[in-house]
Specification:
304 residues, alpha/beta, Arc Repressor Mutant, subunit A, D-Maltodextrin-Binding Protein, domain 2, 3 domains, 5-stranded mixed beta sheet, 4-stranded antiparallel beta sheet, 18% strand, WH-like_DNA-bd_sf, DNA-binding, transcription regulation, WH_DNA-bd_sf, transcription
Length: 304
């Protein structure tokens, strides 16, 4: 059934979103501050209006049908956008500064584009990006959000696992124009291989049972320096999808093989707990996670 804006049953949509999130009418009723029967009635009215079953009620358990899952995604995203818009009606609720810390390679890579687009969306938030060392344990108290390589000490703050980098070999298209196509992993041994502090080349070649001497004429302290050399057509390096997604799509860089090796440590997100975190910090964390999720989906699609 086609619903116009004038006919949208917003109360029923809200009840459905909470019930779908919990898959439990009792918990949904507690969150909404209404009775169990009121939530049930709202959902039944919504199903009757849509002429669809949104929940599977068999076996005395509540679960979403395929239609329910699809509707839940749309309603949840819509309510989040409404809540965000209402918050931003009062600039004082988000206006102010935000200190974000990351390792130099992350700070010089994809995080710059995240911060740039975030500031365009929330121009009243001022962001200061500062560096921390890989595997740094103690972080300054003035840092609102930290993206850490290696798990830091919590220091009374909240720590979440963010992602683990997956590396694959890539080079500039100009390099292939000079050398010709790369058909076998062994062919890479004849090209300038760019190394960094992660030392992942031997692990990558071991995926193919290649135990040859790996030339190491060019070593960089930082993985972003490797990426700069790749972009200059200087050699082949191991890169992370999130850093080169745009260049791969434009055909400037070429992914040479699908096989990946992961970094030794995971990346972690350190923030104040929900009660102490500012609204601007919460908005940035949400925006950051959305961008990482989108990049992860592109990564999975390109690897197929």
């Amino acid at each position: 059934m086609l619903l116009t804006r004038r006919r949208l049953p917003l109360n029923a949509m809200r009840a459905f979103e909470v019930a779908a999130r919990h898959c439990n009418l009792r918990l949904a009723a507690q969150e909404l501050g209404v009775s169990h029967s009121a939530v049930s009635r709202q959902i039944k009215q919504l199903e009757a209006l849509l002429q669809l079953d949104l929940f599977d009620r068999s076996h005395n358990r509540l679960s979403l049908t395929s239609s329910g899952r699809q509707l839940y995604t749309g309603v949840s995203e819509g309510l989040d956008r409404i809540a965000e818009s209402v918050l931003y009606l009062d600039p004082d609720s988000v206006e102010g500064s935000l200190v974000v810390a990351s390792t130099p390679s992350i700070g010089a890579g994809w995080l710059v584009s995240v911060i740039t687009s975030f500031c365009q969306r929330f121009p009243d938030i001022d962001i200061r990006l500062t560096n921390i060392e890989p595997r740094q344990q103690e972080l300054p108290r003035d840092v609102d959000i930290a993206i850490c390589y290696g798990k830091p000490e919590a220091g009374g703050r909240k720590i979440e696992t963010l992602f683990r980098e997956q590396y694959f070999p890539a080079c500039h298209r100009a390099l292939l124009n000079e050398t010709g196509p790369i058909r076998r992993p062994q062919d890479l041994l004849q090209l300038p291989l760019l190394h960094d502090q992660h030392g992942l080349w031997r692990r990558w070649f071991s995926l193919f049972d290649i135990d040859a001497e790996i030339p190491q004429r060019i070593f960089f302290e930082d993985s972003f320096q490797v990426l700069t050399a790749i972009r200059s057509g200087f050699g082949v390096g191991l890169v992370e999808q999130i850093d080169v997604q745009g260049e791969l799509e434009r055909g400037e860089l070429v992914r040479l093989f699908d096989e990946t090796v992961h970094s030794a440590e995971q990346h972690y997100l350190l923030t104040d707990d929900d009660k102490r975190a500012t609204m601007r910090a919460k908005l940035f964390v949400q925006y950051l996670k959305e961008n990482l999720q989108a990049c992860t989906k592109l990564h999975q699609q390109s690897a197929r």
